[in-house]
Amino acid sequence: MEKLKKLLLRGTPSLLIPLGAGFVMASSSDIRAALGMGAAVIVILLLTSIIVSAIKNIVPEKAKVPTYILIVTGFTSLVSMLMSAYFPDVVDMLGAHLACLAVSAVNFREANEISCMEKEGTSIISALITGAFFLVIMVVCALFREVLGNGTFFGLKIEFLQDIKIQTLAGAFGGYLVLAIVLAVIRKIGEKLETKEEVTE
Question: Whole-prediction pTM value?
Answer without folding.
Answer: 0.77
